[in-house]
């Protein structure tokens, strides 16, 4: 299975997501958009964000060197903002979809795209 297709077609291809990566819960980047580099520390923080949503809510989330204010966090979702732009992170059974959107895309538009792909991956046990 090529994970890059999910990033390129299902996320970036919608025009609602500007940058994206799929990170395995056990570590490692499965696929990412060109130039979207998450440090090892950022990857670990993304995965652990779902285990401690209160801390994530208090401290925000850092992606590719950019810190996002956390609007909402729980065991499956993290939503963040940085000015007019934002991020949507969704945990599946084996991975985390990490996405960023930029204006004029609205949070709800990006969230719908990311959640739809996450639901599909969960349905096929990923």
UniProtKB/TrEMBL annotation:
GO MF entry, a single one: actin monomer binding
Location within or outside the cell: Cytoplasm, Cytoskeleton
Family: Belongs to the profilin family.
Cited Pfam families: Profilin
Subunit (UniProt): Occurs in many kinds of cells as a complex with monomeric actin in a 1:1 ratio.
Main location: cytoplasm
Reported function: Binds to actin and affects the structure of the cytoskeleton. At high concentrations, profilin prevents the polymerization of actin, whereas it enhances it at low concentrations.
Protein name, as recorded: Profilin
Record-linked InterPro entries: PFN, PFN_euk, PFN_sf, Profilin_CS
PROSITE patterns xrefs: PROFILIN
Domain of life: Eukaryota
GO CC annotation: cell cortex; cytoskeleton
PANTHER family in the record: PROFILIN
Organism: Phellinidium pouzarii
């Amino acid at each position: 299975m090529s994970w890059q297709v999910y990033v390129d077609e299902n996320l970036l291809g919608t025009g609602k997501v500007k940058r994206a990566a799929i990170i395995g819960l056990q570590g490692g980047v499965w696929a990412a958009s060109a130039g979207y580099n998450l440090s090892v520390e950022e990857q670990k923080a993304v995965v652990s964000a779902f285990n401690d949503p209160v801390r994530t809510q208090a401290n925000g989330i850092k992606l590719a060197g950019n810190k996002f204010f956390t609007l909402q966090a729980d065991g499956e979702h993290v939503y963040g903002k940085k000015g007019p732009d934002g991020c949507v992170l969704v945990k599946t059974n084996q991975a985390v979809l990490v996405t960023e959107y930029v204006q004029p895309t609205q949070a709800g538009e990006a969230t719908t795209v990311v959640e739809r792909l996450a639901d599909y991956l969960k349905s096929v046990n990923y």
